[in-house]
């Protein structure tokens, strides 16, 4: 690789001179310099200095089959040699998106049999928004175009993705969101449940905020509700069991479409192919990306339910929407091989019956009791650890989010790559993790928590 001729310092200088990173304080990055990740194998990543890190985030919630899969490289190579690119516009197609669509229809819930491709989760949510509004217009109800979403939701970084999402900071920088999108409370009991309110009741109350938004706008004006089954970037917020059934009931009652964003939860993370199956949700659209290719190629797939698809096909005429790389043949070849690996190795089943329950057990038995930890929670291989100053009162360190960064920095220094979102430490590892990998992760996290506690006490 040509970059091997460069020292870390040289690469950092060039990076600082020319490369604007996503979601980054550029001045701060220029002061500290980027960590250069240069190699990865199985569950580990390695930086330019040879430091090994256990990757607790599967890249960015995506490398579900782990690193170093020759088969995926070979699938891409073979497809590139045969035909690197052709489009799916103008009545053309190529074989791999065709076959991937069939496969996805088989894996998805029964009411979903059509797929629209993009290259990223953000693009796919743009597609979903346009499709849902187009659907109601085709049904003769163009005024039914409002979308109900949630505060702290993350639906991507394009203009539509940012607008659908509920991150205040992102909205402030947008200078004008896509109109007619409202945000209601998130289903996050740890912080938002009232004194004495059970998880069950809190879940119903959080769902009622959706109903209230629908009634306020008038159901005849509301197109859809959009939500991540488990909020990911917002801090792995797992809703109470009462939440999703109630959301489903409300959507049906007011004839509001249900859009799921499974960009993180799709392809095995929660112990089923889709979290729709884990939570028993019947959705009209499911946005997926990331683990569809385990991140080896950029690809997203919007899974479109029969109700919308039938109208689009029968009454739609031309849908003026699509991307150069919709159904990219190389990305789709890699996705097909990736799904084959997940199936062959039984990774979804393993998360459901073995590693997922063990992960939950270890978080509870080994991490939850630590003095800095207010709560642990997980579904499948997706979890969070809440950092608090006082376990009993749930009081946080101030300023908000500062303590989790201390934990994260100690974790990374001790061989554990994990994220801090606000005061939540986040884990979303590759699905190839075994019980032994979970033990190793817990050892490293505990060490980081101890070191952070010492720092925070003396601060
Ligand atoms: N929906 C969800 C639920 C996501 O998590 C997107 C859409 C957008 O996907 P693309 O491929 O356009 O990035 C995402 C992406 C973080 C982080 O800090 C999370 C994401 C992306 C970048 C950072 O956890 N998720």
From TrEMBL:
Give the stretches traversing the membrane.
Answer: none
SUPFAM superfamilies per the UniProt record, alphabetical: PLP-dependent transferases
Family classification:
Belongs to the class-III pyridoxal-phosphate-dependent aminotransferase family.
An annotated Gene Ontology molecular function: transaminase activity
Q: What is its EC number?
A: 2.6.1.-
Record organism: Aminobacter carboxidus
**Keywords, comma-separated and alphabetical:** Aminotransferase, Pyridoxal phosphate, Transferase
Under which name does UniProt file this protein? Putrescine aminotransferase
Q: Which GO terms describe its cellular component?
A: cytosol
Q: Tell me the domain of life.
A: Bacteria
Tagged with keyword Transferase:
yes
Q: Lineage of this protein's species? A: Bacteria, Pseudomonadati, Pseudomonadota, Alphaproteobacteria, Hyphomicrobiales
Stored InterPro entries: Aminotrans_3, PyrdxlP-dep_Trfase, PyrdxlP-dep_Trfase_major, PyrdxlP-dep_Trfase_small
Matches recorded under PANTHER family: AMINOTRANSFERASE, AMINOTRANSFERASE CLASS-III
């Amino acid at each position: 690789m040509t970059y091997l001729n460069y020292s870390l310092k040289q690469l950092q200088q060039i990076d600082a001179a020319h490369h604007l990173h996503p979601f980054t304080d550029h001045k701060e990055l220029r002061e500290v310099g980027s960590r250069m990740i240069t190699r990865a194998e199985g569950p580990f990543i390695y930086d330019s200095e040879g430091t090994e890190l256990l990757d607790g985030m599967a890249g960015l919630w995506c490398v579900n089959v782990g690193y170093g899969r020759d088969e995926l490289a070979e699938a891409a190579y073979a497809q590139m040699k045969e035909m690197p690119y052709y489009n799916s516009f103008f009545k053309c197609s190529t074989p791999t998106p065709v076959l991937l669509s069939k496969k996805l229809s088989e894996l998805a819930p029964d009411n979903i049999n059509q797929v629209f491709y993009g290259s990223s989760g953000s693009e796919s949510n743009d597609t979903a928004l346009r499709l849902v509004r187009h659907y109601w217009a085709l049904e003769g109800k163009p005024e039914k175009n409002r979308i109900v979403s949630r505060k702290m939701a993350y639906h991507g970084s394009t203009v539509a993705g940012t607008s659908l999402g509920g991150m205040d900071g992102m909205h402030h920088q947008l200078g004008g969101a896509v109109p007619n999108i409202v945000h209601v409370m998130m289903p996050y009991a740890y912080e938002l449940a009232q004194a004495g309110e059970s998880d069950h009741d809190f879940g119903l109350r959080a769902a009622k905020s959706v109903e209230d938004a629908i009634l306020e706008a008038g159901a005849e004006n509301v197109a859809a509700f959009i939500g991540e089954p488990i909020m990911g970037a917002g801090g792995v917020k797992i809703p109470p069991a009462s939440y999703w059934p109630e959301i489903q009931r409300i959507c049906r009652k007011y004839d509001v479409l249900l859009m799921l964003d499974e960009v993180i939860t799709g392809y095995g993370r929660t112990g089923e192919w889709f979290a729709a199956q884990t939570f028993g949700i019947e959705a009209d659209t499911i946005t997926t990306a990331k683990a569809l290719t385990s991140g080896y190629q950029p690809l997203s797939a919007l899974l479109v339910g029969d109700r919308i698809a039938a109208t689009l096909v029968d009454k739609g005429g031309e849908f003026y929407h699509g991307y150069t790389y919709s159904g990219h043949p190389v990305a789709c070849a890699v996705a097909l091989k990736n799904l084959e690996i997940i199936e062959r190795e039984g990774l979804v089943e393993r998360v459901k019956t073995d590693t997922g329950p063990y992960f939950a057990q270890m978080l509870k038995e080994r991490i939850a009791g630590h003095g800095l930890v207010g709560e642990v929670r997980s579904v499948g291989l997706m979890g969070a650890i809440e950092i608090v100053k006082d376990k009993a009162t749930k009081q946080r360190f101030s300023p908000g989010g500062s303590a989790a960064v201390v934990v994260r920095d100690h974790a990374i220094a001790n061989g554990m790559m994990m994220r801090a979102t606000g005061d939540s430490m986040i884990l979303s590892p590759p699905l190839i993790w075994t019980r032994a990998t979970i033990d190793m992760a817990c050892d490293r996290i505990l060490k980081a928590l101890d070191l952070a506690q010492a720092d925070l006490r003396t601060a």
